[in-house]
Amino acid sequence: GAMMDNRFATALVIACVLSLISTIYMAASIGTDFWYEYHTLSPAENVSEAGRSIWEEFFSKEADEKTYTDALFRCNGTVGLWRRCITVPKNSHWYSPPETDMTTNCISFSLSDQFMEKYIEPGNHNSGTDLNRTYLWRLQFLLPFVSIGLMCFGALIGLCACACRSLYPAIATGVLHFLAGLCTLGLVGCYVAGIELLHKKLPLPDDVRGEFGWSFCLACVSAPLQFMAAALFIWAARTNRKEFTLLKAYRVA
């Protein structure tokens, strides 16, 4: 049996490491603001009045989806699950020379923003609710927490398993990691669909390029890690159980 035990131990250690890395990636991707990035190819409006009013509206509590999306387009914006950021000149005095000194300012989505309805025409609340976009947005906000929760719950079960020296709970841990992987995949899918639908409604200006950022990539990498961890946990538990049954049969014989 020692040979076999080593194989399970190795599988479980690798599974735990994968699980830990994917949890860190998930947490980092939730906490950072680079899910989507806009690159403005034309120079920023040099502190013109138009530029000023765009920024002021972006930071106002009343900023609707159209207002802040326009600002993101114009000012090299980046969007996270929790915050939106734009890059603006440090000194916004009209008399200063066009500054090359830029600073990034962010504003958080409040909880009510996260659950607010999205409209068929962004920014126009008379156009009716766009159910698809509203629910995609709510899901992309909730799913990462469900995913992390499932993995932490799996880790707790795993710790109990170590304490009880039993491999049965490893199957439960594996199943929880599999569900976490599904949530992460769902999150990535919802985010992509939400961005696509938004850009259909508010097309990117010709001189603006948009791309998914590294926070989004971390979530994409997290999903396969969760599935690999799940497969290893389940494999270790099942093969070990088979070995155990064979040993018992052998002893009885």
TrEMBL record:
Record has Membrane as a keyword: yes
Membrane topology recorded in Swiss-Prot or TrEMBL: Multi-pass membrane protein
InterPro entries from the UniProt entry: CLDN1, PMP22/EMP/MP20/Claudin
Location of the protein in the cell: Membrane
Alphabetized UniProt keyword annotations: Membrane, Transmembrane, Transmembrane helix
Pfam assignment, any one: Claudin_2
Protein name: CLDN1 protein
A GO CC term attached to the entry: membrane
This protein's record includes keyword Transmembrane helix: yes
Transmembrane segments: 141-163, 175-194, 214-237
